[in-house]
């Protein structure tokens, strides 16, 4: 018998773009994924799923390790409320309700205008026109699940949903004024 490799469910990242805004720089990207049967059942039965989007920007240096100039993350909570029979997607203090899981996932899969570098970019040493290495990823954060689910999620491919780091080189556009 040949050993069979079990691959975790993956999130694909497409169309990542950094653009200048009035308040600094924002990133937009599309994520393509589906929840497997186990994750759909868990959220429908009241388990809150936490999706973390991570962003990193580094400045290449020839004389030493690359310098990490920006590191941000954003957490989205996906939950189901049995009384209202609606799915709820939350980030920070913002909440949106949806009638179906597919509607909630469609919004979760579209990252738009996430402010990753604020107007005080000079504090971080980030300059428009300079070239940086940028990395982006999204993952299901099993460490925020209730304890019994964390234990069952260990090594279980049904609870594994993540993207690889999408890494690209970019030159920051001139700031919008």
List the domain count as a whole number: 1
* Cα separation of the termini: 64 Å
- Total number of helices: 4
Radius of gyration, Cα only, in angstroms? Answer: 18 Å
Ranges where pLDDT stays below 50 over 5 or more residues in a row are 1-8
Overall pLDDT metric: 86
Percent strand equals over 45%
What is the H-and-E element order?
Answer: EEEHEEEEHEHEHEE
The 3D shape can be described as elongated
Largest sheet: 6 strands, antiparallel
**Helix/strand/pairing category:** alpha+beta
Task: Kindly report the spatial arrangement of strands forming the biggest sheet.
Answer: 7-6-5-4-9-11
Give the % helix.
10-25%
DSSP summary, beta strand count: 11
Key features of this structure:
177 residues; alpha+beta; six-stranded antiparallel sheet; three-stranded antiparallel sheet; 11 strands; elongated; disordered N terminus
